[in-house]
Design brief:
The chain has 262 residues and is an alpha/beta fold. 48% of the residues lie in helices and 14% in strands. The chain is globular and about 55 Å long.
Length: 262
């Protein structure tokens, strides 16, 4: 995949899709850097990688804090010397009816899901990718980047905005040989989705039945798409795209269910 000795920074990397991406990048020879909000979670992730012989740099920071992002980016440059790939995976999502949505709730989701991605992209571009005239940035969108979800106005807005940011940066930074893309996962089996399944089994079964391929993705499925777009060797002519990885869900926006032969 062309990631040998590449410095790969992943935000929201302590679990789920982020950690699966770090693991895959490391198996492909990359030098992984993990960033997450909770110190204990970062420590566990770094220790787990160490057990398999991977030496990863762990950073603690809030992607929505400009100060945290600057400090984290400076530490990466100090210890690794450059950033070849940035994966903006950090996000947050809670469901709230739009009529009850508070300004605080709105700002938190927009700041983490969209603004944090811009802050990290700008930080690594200015420090490394623009001077070196090379780099790849992969933003993590969602099915909510392409269609609405119920009771999720702030999340849907932020994830739609992330696709716009992806395209804008892809255009602005192409002159520096920086590629910027977005992966949009559909339903994925993370710890969060499993807890939702346990709480709402009937609703979740209906949700999965509407996926044309008939099953939710695993974090490793999303990680493979991220690494594909990150790789200059495999995706060197791809920039500015929003790639659904959703079992065909984005292809089925008619309101119908996919046909199933009996």
């Amino acid at each position: 995949m062309g990631l040998e000795d590449k410095v790969v920074v992943v935000t929201g990397a302590a679990r789920g899709i982020g950690f699966a991406t770090v693991e895959l990048a490391a198996r492909l020879g990359a030098r992984p850097v993990l960033c997450d909000l909770e110190p204990s979670a970062v420590g566990r992730a770094v220790d787990q990688l160490a057990e398999s012989g991977v030496n990863a740099l762990g950073l603690v920071g809030d992607v929505s804090s400009p100060g945290d992002v600057r400090a984290n980016a400076d530490e990466v440059m100090d210890k690794c010397g450059r950033v070849d790939v940035l994966v903006n995976n950090a996000g947050t999502h809670t469901t709230t009816p739009a009529r009850d949505l508070t300004e605080k709730h709105w700002r938190r989701e927009v700041d983490v899901c969209m603004t944090g991605s811009f802050l990290w992209a700008q930080a690594v571009a200015v420090r490394s990718m623009i001077p070196n005239r090379t780099g790849s940035i992969v933003n993590l969108g969602s099915g909510a980047s392409l269609a609405a979800l119920p009771n999720s106005a702030s999340y849907v807005s932020a994830k739609h905005g992330l696709v716009g940011l992806t395209r804008a940066l892809a255009v602005d930074w192409a002159q520096y040989n920086i590629r910027v893309n977005c992966v949009c996962p559909g339903f994925t089996w993370t710890d969060l989705s499993r807890s939702v399944m346990e709480a709402n089994p009937d609703v979740m079964r209906q949700r999965i039945d509407r996926i044309p391929l008939g099953a939710g993705a695993q974090p490793e499925d999303i990680a493979r798409a991220i690494i594909f777009l990150a790789s200059d060797e495999r995706a060197g002519a791809i920039s500015g795209v929003a790639l659904p990885v959703d079992g065909g869900t984005a292809a089925l926006l008619s309101g119908y269910s996919a046909p199933h032969d009996k």
